[in-house]
Design goal:
heterodimer; A: about 475 residues; alpha/beta; 5-stranded parallel sheet; 18 helices; 16 strands; B: about 290 residues
Chain lengths: ~475, ~290
């Protein structure tokens, strides 16, 4: 081996830790609704991008539900070509500013990162967010070019992540797209569910503006299944994608859930986010709990408990029946919640809710221990008899998932459903039992992530294109 | 945006009739359904029952009683003004069937949504008896309209100023004792619907009530409108608003309707104060 070859083989000196990201101080931010994470500066981003090995066989891309060309965009960041970096991301991801903030990177791209085998993985999510924010801040965001009109019309039901991604892809391919949204504001869970401190609404609004610039029509206050049916849509459109999202919230079925002060996370977050109940200038009422308990361990639970803190709760707790390691929430959200002073009552489950004069006063819980693994592969929590204890509360928020929304299924003949009322759709193509009708997102999978919903929208759009034109769309990224 | 085509006071001082341009909704809406209304950018979403549907004119009608901030703001709107967001029709329509005799029991301004329901039962070939009650004669609404479509209209007032002195339930029991009915449909304050359900229970007559719990989205997402019916959690916006009155947990419903009493009073008072500061005069609130 020559001297030069040995030099090349010598391992690169990798900075072991992720470049820290500036954040609002926990004591300050728990009293405001501004974004927690402030994002990388250009210098920090270039430094972090320098940690990427630009692997030939990138594990990160495989971990990404929409296969963002991660090494390519990171290389562009490293070279200071931020706009081009974003263009590379946008080949396969319409909403990088959103995904950079809300994706569970530790379970996706960053899990596959080669650097991460020995050190911290490259902060892919933070770099994605940086590229999107930098372009937005420099007013360089532009709607992508659309193919010449195909003369075909597609309808999309719901303007959440699945619907937006599908609309974006279809519009790019030259179809005339109309989105029907039940609420008075588009964005679905991105506006009614995810709080401002984690995903500023301005970011969602700007992304939706770009869609409108591409010619996508958004028709608000239209409840499909009530004002128009899928069959009527098929008379006016050549194809349809159903992405109605989350349905009615689950409750535990325990005593006292009817008491005032017991919320579903959907209701609590809807009041706070899209209806802006935290602001005295808005009319929607909200209960300002002093002692709040949130039941659940997912992102929605973390969003709820941290929102309750910001609304003024003196004490806010998470009650979760498994351990902290089992929580499905993003690691960063758990970490942020703890920094802000949220109490974690793990291996505990509510058994009844007590009240006085119709309002909640206490929640009785029981301690749990982990038994044998259940069907999900996680160890099944079992109550320890006689271990009941009570937590004084005035507000309880149930963040334990949702059921299927019945409006489209009930009003559409011959649409095959699962036993739980979700729409049966091919995971790869979005095809349903009805010709020309596709579906994706939570109405197919049940509660899942923003990025998986987006992935389903993109996949369906490409199959819809083939259905509409008889031609395969060019592969993503070309 | 939906334009207000017509607005008039139908009961002094605080109950107003609105006819609103809503061509698409009017094509689809059925008796028993409701709409969600948001008046302006900072407004809340409130559910309002359909008091009439005219698909030919492309309009729907709503009856609004000024009780809190939003309803007081709404009754300040005039003919030609717009409602920012109007969403519907929502909820399951009343199941219109032919059962022979149907007794319709309404209280307060709950009589309004019963009008299209009564008309549909009549059109389906039923004999329709309407029992409508109020505290006194000045508080009765929709009596003339009901007389035009029903076979019989019986008015009750608490003070005896018109019709039979007493409660709707007194007349209902008498009617059911004299002659059976296949169905009772009731809309009004929860307490009245509860007593109507209790009154019909011994007769074994099916009793449908239209519940009015708190709602936010109205489309089966938030769960705010949950009610317990037959021991099961149901959602008024997608499973209802009509339920079997004999199965409803009335105590829980009435308790949940009180969820925001304090917050709503505060919001209403703040609105009145702001109004006074801005205009230098008292807010034109429908004081009772």
């Amino acid at each position: 081996m020559t001297e030069a070859a040995a030099e090349q083989k010598r391992p690169l000196k990798i900075i072991p830790r992720k470049t820290p990201i500036p954040e609002q101080d926990p004591q300050v931010r728990r009293a405001n609704y501004d974004e927690v994470s402030l994002g990388y500066t250009a210098e920090q981003a270039v430094r972090e991008a320098g940690r990427c090995l630009n692997c030939v066989k990138p594990g990160c891309v495989q971990g990404c539900p929409v296969q963002v060309p991660i090494p390519r965009f990171i290389k562009l960041v490293k070279e200071g070509r931020f706009k081009e970096a974003l263009d590379a991301i946008k080949e396969s991801n319409l909403l990088p500013a959103v995904c950079g903030r809300v994706c569970p990177q530790e379970k996706q791209c960053e899990q596959g990162c080669v650097v991460g085998k020995k050190f911290d993985p490259v902060a892919i999510g933070r770099l994605e967010r940086f590229a999107a924010d930098w372009v937005m801040q420099h007013d360089l965001a532009e709607a992508p070019l659309t193919a010449p009109s195909t003369g075909k019309k597609a309808a999309i039901v719901g303007s959440g992540p699945a619907g937006l991604a599908c609309a974006y892809e279809l519009a790019k391919l030259g179809h005339a797209v109309t989105i029907f949204e039940a609420f008075h504001e588009p964005g679905g869970v991105l506006v009614y569910g995810i709080p401002e401190f984690r995903l500023p609404k301005l970011i969602v609004a700007r992304e939706i503006d770009l869609l409108r610039k591409m010619g996508v029509e958004i028709s608000l206050n239209v409840v499909v299944g009530k004002l128009v049916t899928i069959d009527e849509i098929l008379h006016r459109f050549d194809a349809c994608f159903i992405a109605t999202g989350a349905g009615t919230p689950k409750f535990m079925g325990i005593e006292g859930e009817d008491l005032n002060g017991v919320y579903s996370a959907n209701e609590f977050l809807t009041r706070m986010n899209i209806m802006r109940a935290y602001s005295p200038d808005f009319d929607t009422p909200i209960r300002k709990g002093e002692r709040v308990a949130v039941v659940g361990g997912g992102n929605v639970a973390m969003d709820s408990v941290r929102t309750a803190l910001r609304l003024g709760a003196g004490e806010a707790s998470i009650i979760y029946r498994r351990t902290e390691e089992d929580m499905p929430a993003r690691r960063e959200e758990v970490h942020h919640a703890k920094e802000e002073g949220v109490r974690f009552e793990v291996l505990a489950e509510p058994v009844r809710i007590l009240g006085k004069d119709g309002f909640v006063t206490e929640v009785e819980c029981i301690r749990m221990e982990l038994g044998a693994p259940d069907r999900s592969g996680r160890r099944k929590p079992q109550p320890i008899s006689g271990s009941e204890f009570r937590i004084p509360v005035d507000t309880i928020i149930m963040a334990i998932g949702t059921n299927a929304n019945p409006l489209v299924p009930q009003s559409t003949a011959d649409l095959q459903l699962t036993a739980w009322g979700y729409i049966v759709a091919n995971e790869q193509t979005g095809e349903t039992s009805r010709k020309g009708v596709y579906a994706g997102g939570d109405i197919v999978t049940g509660s899942a992530t923003v990025i998986s919903a987006m992935g389903s929208g993109v996949k369906a759009a490409r199959v819809m294109h083939q259905y509409l034109t008889g031609e395969k769309p060019a592969p993503t990224g070309s | 945006m939906a334009a207000i085509l017509e607005k008039r006071l139908i009961r002094k001082p605080d109950v107003f009739y609105f006819r609103i341009t809503a061509p698409l909704i009017s094509q689809k809406a059925k008796p028993g359904q409701f709409v969600m209304v948001r008046l302006h950018e900072r407004g809340e979403r409130i559910p309002l029952s359909l008091a009439d549907i005219d698909p030919e004119e492309g309009t729907i009608s709503l009856i609004v009683m000024a009780v809190g901030k939003t309803t007081n703001e709404m009754v300040l709107l005039q003919q030609g003004d717009n409602i920012l967001d109007l969403c519907g029709p929502l909820g399951q329509p009343t199941h219109i069937e032919t059962v022979g005799r149907v007794i319709i029991v309404g209280g307060g301004f709950g009589v309004a949504p019963l009008y299209p329901i009564a008309r549909a039962f009549k059109a389906a070939g039923n004999e329709v008896t309407v029992i409508m009650g109020a505290r006194s004669k000045d508080l009765l609404i929709y009596e003339d309209e009901m007389r035009k479509i029903a076979d019989e209209v019986i008015v009750t007032t608490d003070d005896g100023s018109k019709g039979t002195k007493g409660l709707v339930t007194d007349v209902l029991v008498k009617e059911l004792t004299c002659r059976p009915a296949g169905l009772v449909v009731s809309v009004g304050p929860a307490i009245m619907m509860r007593f109507v359900s209790e009154a019909t229970r011994p007769f074994g007559v099916r009793t449908m009530v239209s519940l009015n719990p708190i709602m936010v989205d109205g489309t089966g997402m938030c769960g705010g409108c949950r009610v317990t019916v037959g021991g099961k959690t149901m959602f008024a916006c997608v499973d209802g608003p009509e339920f079997d009155g004999h199965q409803v947990d009335w105590i829980a419903l009435m308790n949940r309707q009180r969820s925001y009493i304090a917050e709503e009073r505060e919001s209403f008072e703040a609105w009145k104060r702001r109004h006074e500061q801005m205009l230098g005069s008292a807010a034109p609130v429908c004081e009772r």
